[in-house]
């Protein structure tokens, strides 16, 4: 088995046309990444402790960490993280899969809810938060109320555009993607990962560092379904429009309505469903009356 950073070459038996044959297959890499952040102890000493562990595809780890901490309300700006460091002193695994994030301000050691909230975090996106009220407590930015942001014909092309920039998916068929587009339909950034939440965190983390001003006037496309966690991350980042290739959950729809997010599902080819705030889409008068 040969392994690169994000793809493993694996020998398989393929059954096709009533015959078995040996061939090489590309498999998407999945490895843990531990986030360690400083906590200020009552003694005044700063100690690094594990905040979260997620299963991810290696690559863009700093963006992933930045996006995760921001979307979960641990940091308010990209500059709140002073430095990143792989834990080489913890052995081979630590050099690749354990990351220390130096924060401007260490977290208080008595933040029991904050610490315990992320200990169960994994690729499924379970963070311990189950209600809209938890998002309200984070005081997310107010989404802009601009109308006619993008035309439906332009939106229909997003999936095909994003697919062309998903090399990991094209080789393995097992990665998710999150893409950010501007109002002209141009790609701002596309990120891939075996975990759909990680793909979005990588995207958010990149934009926070490189183009934070673009988030408030962008359209997000995710390759899977629209879960509450993904909708929550979009709202927390100030993204006003979100489209998904799959279906939304009931809580995702309820959250979109609560925070005025335009939510679109089943964006596949020439069709889609609008679940909330369709006024951000440009449509003809005939389409509006349907």
Structural write-up:
The chain has 290 residues and is of the alpha/beta class. It has two domains: 100 residues, Ubiquitin-like (UB roll) (Roll); 139 residues, 3-Layer(aba) Sandwich (Cytidine Deaminase, domain 2), CATH 3.40.140.10. Helices cover 29% and strands 33% of the residues. It is built from eleven helices and 16 strands. The strands form four sheets. It has a six-stranded mixed β-sheet. A hairpin with a 3-residue loop joins β1 and β2. The longest helix is centred in the last third of the chain and has 15 residues. It starts with a strand and ends with a helix. The C terminus is likely disordered.
Proportion in helices: 25-40%
Mean pLDDT equals 88
CATH architecture of the largest domain: 3-Layer(aba) Sandwich
Report how far the terminal alpha carbons are from each other: 55 Å
CATH class of the largest domain: Alpha Beta
SSE pattern: EEEEEHEHEEHHEHHHEEHEHEHEEEH
Radius of gyration: 20 Å
Residue windows where pLDDT falls under 50 for at least 5 positions: 119-130, 286-290
Largest sheet: 6 strands, mixed
C-alpha geometry:
flat
Q: Return the CATH topology of the largest domain.
A: Cytidine Deaminase, domain 2
Number of beta-strand segments: 16
Looking at how many chains there are and whether they match, the oligomeric state comes to single chain
Tally of helical segments? 11
Beta content comes to 25-35%
Largest sheet, spatial ordering of strands: 11-10-12-13-14-15
Number of domains in the coordinates?
2
Helix vs. strand class: alpha/beta
CATH homology group of the largest domain: Cytidine Deaminase, domain 2
